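Form 7-S
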Amino acid sequence: MAVTIYKIAEKAGVSSSTVARVLRGDLKESWKGTSERAARIRQIAEEMGYQPNLRARAFSRGKTHGIALLYTNDAWIFEGVNSQVVNSFVRALRAQGYHLVFVPVDSDGEWEEIVRGGQVDGCMMLQRMPKSVNDVLKETGLPIVVLGDNADPALPHVTVDDFGGAFSATKHLLSLGHQRVGLFVHSTIKPHCSVEQRRAGYESALDEANLESQLFWRVSENEVVDVLIRAEKRPTALLCYSDLEATMIVHAMWKYGIKIPDELSVVGFNDSFATRHMTPPLTSVAYDAEKLGEIGADLLFKQMSAPSFSVDQPAAIQINQKLNVRGSTGPAHLK
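Output:
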């Protein structure tokens, strides 16, 4: 039979309300006698094998200390730089006594029961959600933060400056004398605000230089490689949507004997650890993923502590990107 606070109170010779306050940590222990009594109650509870009813505690306090991470595709959580964002976000939650609850958004509707039923105190997302899901979240009045995307501007969000990142990367290539600069976005890339913003930054830099863009837009790496090794006026530099595309290109060029960066300069995005140790090391655009997670958690906590929070006045925060120049980019050798 489960040990209750009433049994602990009976053995300790105090009221059940005193036991409840001690076990919740709500009892002031400034007096020596009070402190000793609290210590004895905790010792008795431990000896009797007391296990707190977390659901009841959450109900009584009006808080669960759980934050829902809503997702439709778990690849968004565990792949690439997003895993760093989540880890940072979790550390910030734990520092405030909160924990992350993984909540898949699927057809069974359980996710809606969780967010409407008071089982979490707030929500976080890393990917775009259907409008119907966003509408439900707004109706609940729960604090919300979207990290890395601004698909629904009506929700508080933290994004990175993908336009600026692509602009600076393209300007770097132009400064090296490249006049034929391509942009490669793989066919498998999921819908995301960064896709169009990186394209816009790339094209803006080329427009300033009065140069034409050369897009490899949502194609396979084989289609890009075919142009790079066969076209008469092939690009001398290639900006890739991510480090993954950049790695594909560098490997393909190695197979065909095309030297990086002597014959082709390559730039990636996200600055993955492994690409810093490629031959040559990859020039890559990156942002502080840990900072993104920390800012997201802070934005969520501010909503939770605000006396009159409303998603009708959403916050929008953007963090900068940085170009890390390494050995995969060099001066153009035009033919």
